[in-house]
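Pasting as-is:
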Amino acid sequence: MVSRRSLTRAERNVTKSKRWQMGIVILFAIVLTSCGSLAPLSPTPAPASEPTSLPDTPTPEPDHIAQLRNAEYQLGIPESLRVVKLTDGKYEEGAPGGVDYVAVTMLDFATKGSVDGAGNDKYVTLVAENYGGSGTFVFLVVFADENGTPKFLTSRMVDDRPQINELSLSDTNEIFLDATIHGSQDPMCCPTLHTTRHFRVNALGNLSMTDYTTFTPDGRPRTINIEAPAQGTEVFNKVEIKGSVAIAPFENNLTYQIVDSAGLVLAIGSITVNATELGGPGTFDQTISLGNVLSGAKVRLEVQDLSAEDNSWLAMDSVELVVKSK
């Protein structure tokens, strides 16, 4: 039998010390191994550099715009005929505040196309005139195209300090203008009456407004639509008018006018609208007299909704007719 000798206290202490030291060595080895297995820290990425943007290349103006900006322009405010030469879209003479001061500026709206029904291109733009006071009068202007060079043809005032929203050509080759102008209660600084309208150059070279729309404060359009007679219809001394309105006029009454190419009113009268509710949509169907019109003459029939407050237009539609004798 093998006998086991009991360890003394000193031997037991030595044994414990060796075990503790061995445990420290093993733990340290584990820590080193673990640290070695950790993925190295990623370096902080450099901030992304902003892409270098090349300066925008300005789009060159169409040739007709550059030509318009250097065309001769007939002033619209003076009663006597006066023509000035624009330079880069501007003309100025005299000192501001002086009695002879004139400043003319072509606005950044222009288009080109057939606006007379004959297929001949015209230049259309907007020009502002100032004579030293607070008023800045904006005109819709048409230039004829003479071998590629614009020549002043006609103009029509839009308003004093209007807000121009759009100038373009419609699908029917009419001039379309969207502008906010002054209502009867608006201060001159701040127009609020939203309007749209179409124009055509007539046989005499004048601008005829073919329709006109205003909008209620809640954005509803006041429109008149003439359904018959059709554009260019040959008629005799009487004609039946049919159509509709989006908003019935005051007391359900519209006004009609027969106007010749020079703008002379040949006949005037009223048309009754049939509407089921106040301010609702309505229709009209009435036969009217054209008055004394020469056979073969071209006239424009206008149907208007006039303001009861100041007799200004709220809406208008028109058709051109050819008058024939029986």
